[in-house]
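Hi P.,

Sorry for the delay on this. The queue was packed all week, but I finally got your sequence through. Input first:
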Amino acid sequence: MHKRIDHIVVRVKDLDASIHDYTTKLGMRVSKGPDDIPALGMRRALLPMGDSGQFIELAEPLGDGGAIGRALERRGEGLHLVALAVDDLAAAVAQMKANGAELIEAGSQVFVHPRDGHGVMYQLVERK
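Then the structure:
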């Protein structure tokens, strides 16, 4: 059902400072951003991991903060979610529901509740 880790989202207080640290200290590069994503209440930058399409997304709250802002207030900076690539999103959702997983469906996005991930929120992303 799961093909690989697609991407990881890290919530940060200051996107520009985080980009500086990831690029200078960790030797990574920014492939996209920083971009404001008002619909998700965040500002983000993408840092690719090799050539396979995997990436790290740094996310800073924008405006009232949305989910990133709420999590940052409660838990501070750190891992926000791990996105898992699946071949067929509908089939993965059906199987997980049948297995008793608590899913959060927000429009076209599907997340596994952190209670079922032992403190880690997972997102399911269809990748053919």
